[in-house]
Design a protein that fits this description.
This protein has helices at residues 3-6, 21-32, 46-56, 64-70, 90-98, 113-126, 140-150, 186-191, 193-203, 217-220, 312-326, 337-355; strands at 12-17, 36-42, 59-61, 75-78, 102-105, 130-132, 157-167, 206-214, 229-236, 241-251, 259-265, 268-273, 278-283, 300-303. With 378 residues, it is an alpha/beta fold. The strands form two sheets. An eight-stranded mixed β-sheet has the order 8-9-10-7-11-12-13-14. It has a six-stranded parallel β-sheet with strand order 3-2-1-4-5-6, with helices on both faces.
């Protein structure tokens, strides 16, 4: 049955699995979206499932097996957590795919690269949509930046600079002793999915990775295992160079705020600040123009007025619902499982480089896109 055939008049029937904070955020987005009909929530912790069911006015289940047996679902939204925020994604996602359901999964796709590869392979085999909540580029700022690129106002890419993390410092540091997150690579696996997804969105596949990662003394003194500061140099398939700096509240961020992405080209440069808040575009100097050192043409500024990062969730979830509703070719699904796998391949390359003293690493190739011969060429 296709997505269009299974769509009800009220929208795709959705069940959400994993009802902690992020699960309730997803459930609220589905509840408010005209393309979705939230019909059930599920959590193995009964109190969480019951509380979420009451909040959203739907039925509670305490196992995915039970929910699949009693509900006619089109989409299962997996928002479980686990070790490194991703160890509980594989089983429910695979169970839902085996039942013939489309799946939207929180990031990271998994905290295990082998599991992530299998999720992508199995979804493709089953001809089902597997999406991931890589929500950082479903924003007005990213859309306008992409338009600059598509209109030729950026030109040939030269570099990409990305800074992202949390504001903090030594005095506000608190050691997270939970074994689920007090792991060397928890920050990399749980968080670098986002910047890598945005860098790839604008600049394409990454082919070379070199990492110099560390942690400050105040973490070491507490026995904190987290490698929290990540300095990553990359090269993209077209030869563009890039740099990613991330830390988990080890210092205060300066210019650009907690999230900034600067992409420069031969005809112009843009920078997005704080993800959804602000975009600045600087056109390149044209023949006949003359400016002093450090000066240039007047930039264009888009200030969205949006200060709430939470606004990215309904925008990304709506895009998934829209793609499934329209029945887009599997390889055209926005923020797909394959896209999420790409970020994990880069993260595993970062880990490999770090463990080998900053050695240059080539990420594992992504699965080949074959396409569906029954779908007209787009």
């Amino acid at each position: 049955m296709t997505a269009k055939e299974s769509e009800s008049p009220k929208g795709l029937r959705v069940g959400v699995v994993g009802m902690s904070g992020i699960g309730n955020t997803h459930a609220a987005a589905h509840k408010a979206d005209s393309l979705a009909q939230l019909v059930a929530v599920c959590d193995v912790v009964k109190d969480k499932a019951d509380a979420a069911a009451k909040t959203h006015g739907v039925k509670a289940y305490y196992s995915l097996k039970e929910m699949l047996a009693h509900e006619e679902l089109d989409v299962v939204d997996v928002t479980t957590g686990g070790y490194e925020n991703g160890s509980w994604h594989f089983e429910p996602a695979m169970e839902a795919l085996a039942a013939g359901k489309h799946v939207l999964c929180e990031k990271p796709l998994s905290n295990d690269i082998g599991e992530a590869r299998e999720m992508v392979r199995y979804a493709q085999e089953r001809k089902l949509y597997l999406g991931c909540n890589l929500n950082h580029y479903f924003t007005p700022t990213a859309e306008r930046a992409k338009k600059y690129m598509d209109e030729g106002q950026v030109g040939e890419l030269v570099y990409c600079l990305f800074k992202v993390g949390f504001n903090g410092g030594e005095e506000t540091y608190r050691h997270n002793k939970s074994p689920r997150f007090n792991q060397p690579y928890a920050h990399m696996k749980a968080f670098l999915t986002h910047p890598f997804s945005v860098m790839r969105h604008f600049c394409g596949d990454i082919t070379h990775v070199q990492s110099f990662s560390t942690k400050p003394g105040f973490r070491k003194n507490k026995g904190d295992l987290l490698v929290s500061v990540n300095s990553v140099h990359v090269q993209f398939a077209d030869g563009t160079v890039g740099y990613l700096l991330s830390h988990r509240g080890d210092a205060m961020w300066g210019l650009g705020g907690w999230w900034s992405c600067e992409v420069a080209g031969s005809k112009g440069t843009f920078c997005i600040e704080n993800c959804i808040e602000k975009l600045t575009y600087w056109p390149a100097v044209k023949p006949g123009q003359s400016f002093g050192l450090g000066q240039g043409p007047t930039p264009e500024v888009l200030d969205t007025g949006i200060k709430d990062f939470g606004a990215t969730f309904p925008r990304r979830i709506h895009a998934f619902l829209d793609d499934v509703t329209r029945g887009v070719p599997l390889e055209h699904l926005r923020s797909s499982g394959r896209d999420a796998l790409a970020t994990l391949e880069y993260i595993w390359a970062v880990i490999d480089s770090y463990e080998n003293g900053g050695e240059m690493v080539r990420p594992n190739p992504l699965p080949t896109l074959h396409g569906d011969p029954r779908v007209e060429r787009i």
